[in-house]
Amino acid sequence: MDSTRVLVTGATGFVGPVLCESLAQSGYTVRAALRTDRLLPSCIAERAVTGNIGVTTEWGPALQNVDLVVHAAARAHVLHDAPANSELYMETNARGTQRLAQAAGQAGVRRFVYLSSIKVNGEETTGRPYQSSDVPSPCDAYGKSKLQAERFVLQAAAATGMEAVIVRPPLVYGPGVGGNFLRLMRWVDKQWPLPFGSIDNQRSLVNVWNLTDLIVNLLAHPRGPGGVWLVSDGADLSTPDLIRRLGRAMQRGVRLLPVPAAVLRLCGSLAGRGAEIARLCGSLTVNTSPARDMLRWSAPVAVDEALARTAAWYRAADR
Questions:
Q1: Which of 1, 8, 69, 81 could share a disulfide with 27, CB 3.0–4.6 Å?
Q2: What pLDDT was estimated at residue 77?
């Protein structure tokens, strides 16, 4: 295992640091693909400066003697992103991934794990969880760029014989989390009354430790290639339940007001915050039984433990 080299893109991003640490602990030699040179933790043995990820990125030196690739870098989804930025998503997330996947296949990389997004499936579930076999239905430029990237990875694999693995996580949380999850933590920290007491929804989440554990598993598992894998913590939560658990993790009192979901959605729409409120009121769940049954994988870090770790990071960052 010591000689198995893994190239990781996004090594210094949100998921990357935990992933690189887990890979190093599993005996892999970790090489980070970096936009610019910088100091790195000791778990990263090698570095390759590739610049921005796009259609012209030169991957040759970074892929030299590489056995496996985990492509976790992406232009992140941003709420209220300008329509003009859809081309930036396609350049980085789709065409940039295509360039890397083609180069990896031509360089003899054995397996390529692509970190996609559940937004490829859609934005909200009603009646049943998303399945990996569902017809994709992305609703925004980010989701569409991730779907196109998946297709490019599969095309490169078919053309070169490289093994392709696709992982679609729902909302990922942990140290460094942003977006709605960080906003929720700030509200809980301030102990504001929150108008979500009447929300009866279900959301699948995955903490960064469980996500990276599955990725490491998929790098070696014989049943990993060719599949699209959905992942979660294994415990779907309502928004009120998540807020209460965050309150316990952050040692803050929580007060939930019973405002109807329809009123919240209307107010969110009028305030230009419809997308954020929709995520807090609506359901999005995923079916992870294929990972459990075919890979014999189960989430190693429980929700409350992960929230406690995330709360510890929040407190340290706040100081």
A1: 1
A2: 66
**Of 70, 60, 65, nearest to 163 (Cα)?**
70
CATH code for the domain of 83? 3.40.50.720
195: its two tokens: 């108008």
Domain assignment present for 100: yes
Residue 238 placed within a domain: no
> What is the average pLDDT score of the chain?
93
SS3 content of the chain, % helix, strand, coil (to 5): 45, 15, 40
Question: Residue 96 domain-assigned?
Answer: yes
Domains in the chain, number: 1
Separation between Cα atoms, residue 255 and residue 195, nearest integer Å? 9
- Residue 62's Cβ-count burial label (10 Å; 0-12, 13-18, 19+) is buried
DSSP state of 106: H
What would the pLDDT profile of 242-265 be if each residue is shown by its tens digit? 999 999 999 999 999 999 999 999
Q: Answer whether residue 249 is part of any domain.
A: no
pTM: 0.93
Q: Is 206 within 8 Å of 306 (Cβ atoms)?
A: no
Of 170, 171, 169, the residue nearest 184 (C-alpha):
171
